[in-house]
UniProtKB/TrEMBL annotation:
Protein name according to UniProt: Probable lipid II flippase MurJ
Location within or outside the cell: Cell membrane
Organism taxonomic ancestry: Bacteria, Candidatus Kaiseribacteriota
Gene Ontology cellular-component terms listed: plasma membrane
Pathway membership, UniProt: Cell wall biogenesis; peptidoglycan biosynthesis
Length: 560
């Protein structure tokens, strides 16, 4: 039994779709724990000041993690480690020790500075908070500054576990991270109050790191504090990672600025923004991130060999399947938004008003799910081709569009009541308070769609046009998704009289059967249209994807 388990862990990938589906499966497991985490938080606190403080305190530690850990990310370190291992284990160890020492010194220094400046950072970033809220935000922030240290080291250690082919171990790390947060809600919060939530985050980060330590000890590759006299290679690592680090940081800075803006929009705005963000991240993680990560090694190898035609063909195949899966997800999330939010979050202190407002925010986020997914693929394709500046510039432009949109929408909705009423009526929340926070997800989606459009234009200029099948998939998926959404909407009304909508189970079953019915209609439409992806998916599952090797996701690009 044990032997079979290790054979399962170390199997080689047999294809793009097999790897993507396995990535999606493990992403789904992590997201399910994320659902439980968010449900507990929503049930305990509702969309109010407590969750606003909790999510606000996250932002600075997350930014530190992204900025520091992406410098030693998997896609950066693995090529260097592979090269050093060819020179011998001693060379690989010296390189790893130097990177570990430099990284730990850097992140520790940044953490100390952030710890000392936490009260000023909280006041600067969240001007809408009261003095009491700012004090608690700074306190939680200081505790959570341990998180980027643990996650950053875990990210560094993951490069070794990947090279040692221990993919399953790293795959479960995000699951353990969410488990730590859940323990914080269940056990630490009743004992310590809000600071217990912060310690739960720290526990999750520690578990994320700790599961990899035994592997490093067994392989004899546990890093030690030792600075190499040759800083040229360290400098090379930094130069390679810098554009990618800046691009990832820009997205995190954008979310930080939107969170700061949310502090001015009333209690609960930050909580609703983050809860709806987590929900919309599910299809993005399962579809967009899975295909982009699965395609990256193949794309990099093809570009290195000069096989640009196959490069574009492989990218087109990944893009077709992203469109195929993400368009139905977009429509279902919009049509079933209330059922999704109520099922996942609707309990305890999270009332019906919180549900409706979060559902409206989810719908606005969902509009850009397709754009976000294809942007992830385009970004990876540029990295595979060694062109890291284009994603950086597009990330900068997208951030500017998002932030400017937030201010413009704020002015528009304040000065022109009709514009605000139109959006509220469209999302059926005109009778609720706090609807001004909807400019946050709306602005984010505008920035994401603009970025995807620019990516598409520049890609056809820098490489070549996609295969004709991409256009066919787009229109087939678009048509079937619209019909599917209409069918799901009709079924919602049919099941109104079938299930008890005053219970979570009744709402879940209404959404489930409405969604399944809509999917059946959508699949039938695709079959009648002779859709290519339906046949490819069938062949993929006949390849026994559970025998494919798992590629661990890069935590700097993972939504936990």
């Amino acid at each position: 039994m044990v032997k079979r388990l290790f054979q399962f862990i170390e199997r080689e990938i047999s294809g793009l779709h097999e790897a993507a589906y396995l990535l999606g499966f493990f992403a789904l497991l992590s997201q399910l724990l994320g659902f439980l985490r968010d449900r507990l938080l929503a049930s305990y606190f509702g969309a109010g000041e407590a969750l606003d403080i909790y999510y606000a305190a996250f932002r600075v530690p997350d930014l530190i993690f992204i900025w520091s850990a992406s410098m030693v990310s998997l896609s950066v370190l693995i090529p260097f480690l592979s090269r050093k291992r060819e020179e011998g284990k001693a060379a690989a160890r010296e390189f790893l020790d130097s990177v570990f020492s430099a990284f730990f010194a850097f992140i520790l220094l940044v953490g100390i500075v952030a710890f000392l400046m936490a009260p000023k950072l909280a006041s600067l970033l969240f001007p809408g908070f009261s003095a009491e809220m700012l004090s608690m935000t700074a306190y939680l922030m200081r505790i959570m500054l341990l998180q980027p240290i643990f996650l950053g080291l875990s990210n560094l250690f993951a490069s070794i576990t990947q090279l040692e082919r221990r993919f399953f171990i790293y795959a479960v790390s995000p699951i353990l991270y969410n488990l730590g947060i859940i323990i914080g809600v269940f056990f630490f919060f009743p004992l310590m109050g809000l600071q217990g939530l912060a310690w739960g985050v720290v526990l999750g980060a520690f578990l994320h790191l700790g599961i990899q330590v035994p592997v490093l000890l067994r392989t004899g590759m546990m890093p030690r504090f030792r600075f190499s006299k040759d800083f040229a290679l360290i400098r090379e690592v930094l130069l390679v990672s810098l554009p990618r680090t800046l691009a990832l940081s820009l997205q995190n800075i954008t979310v930080l600025l939107l969170t700061a803006f949310g502090s001015l929009l009333g209690a609960g705005s930050i909580a609703i923004f983050n809860l709806s963000w987590n929900l919309q991240s599910v299809p993005l993680s399962i579809v967009g991130a899975s295909y982009s990560i699965a395609a990256f090694p193949t794309l990099a190898g093809l570009w290195t060999k000069g096989e640009k035609g196959i490069f574009v063909s492989t990218l087109s195949a990944a893009l077709r399947h992203i469109l195929f899966w993400s368009m139905p997800a977009l429509v279902l999330f919009v049509v079933l938004r209330a059922q999704i939010v109520r099922t996942v979050l609707g309990s305890g202190a999270f009332d019906w008003s919180d549900t409706r407002l979060t559902a409206a925010a989810l719908a606005l986020f969902a509009v850009s799910v397709v754009a976000q997914s294809i942007s992830l693929l385009f970004t990876r394709s540029y990295y595979a081709a060694g062109k890291s500046r284009t994603p950086l510039f597009i990330a900068l432009g997208g951030a500017l569009v998002t932030v400017c949109s937030a201010f413009l929408f704020s002015e528009l909705f304040t000065r022109e009541p009709f514009a605000r009423y139109f959006l509220e009526s469209l999302l059926r929340v005109s009778d609720l308070n706090g609807t001004l926070m909807l400019i946050l997800p709306l602005s984010y989606s505008v920035g994401a769609i603009v970025s995807a459009f620019v990516f598409w234009i520049l890609y056809t200029r820098d490489f070549q046009k996609f295969e004709s099948g991409v256009s066919s998939t787009f229109w087939q998926s678009f048509a079937s998704s619209i019909i599917m959404g209409f069918a799901s909407y009709l079924l919602l009304n049919v099941f109104n009289a079938v299930f008890d909508l005053h219970t979570t189970l009744g709402i879940f079953l209404q959404g489930l059967f409405s969604g399944l019915g809509g999917l059946a209609v959508g699949i039938s439409v695709l079959y009648l249209l002779g859709n290519l992806e339906i046949r490819e998916i069938w062949r993929t599952f006949h390849h026994k994807i559970w025998k494919a090797k798992f590629i661990g996701p890069d935590p700097t690009e993972t939504t936990f």
